[in-house]
Amino acid sequence: QVQLVESGGGLVQTGGSLRLSCAASGRAFSSYRTAWFRQAPGKEREFVATISPSGGSTYYTDSVKGRFTISRDSAKNTVYLQMNSLKPEDTAVYYCAGRTSFKARLDEYDYWGQGTQVTVSS
User: Fold this and answer.
1) Which of 81, 64, 86, 89 is nearest to 19 (CA)?
2) Does residue 25 register a pLDDT over 90?
């Protein structure tokens, strides 16, 4: 029953940085793993990164490794995605996702935010 709200998207040049935020409505948000996904025009939604409730376990899709960092701030009940060295191919709507129960797959989630647009110009 947690509601997620993403923010921080925008227009940046190649090589620039953005930090996306995912704010949750309640404490239940941090009980399970949280993730960021993205969807580019004409493409399927793809997994980007995930973080464990404690913040101690993170995973990234190969295309963003070394450039993106997922983190969480328990005091603010918020998950972040720091995006550095942005490329035009990173252009997409970015979505925050959460879980209501344990899942075997790292890319399986139960509920989603509304999305925030990230556009990287060349």
Assistant:
1) 81
2) no
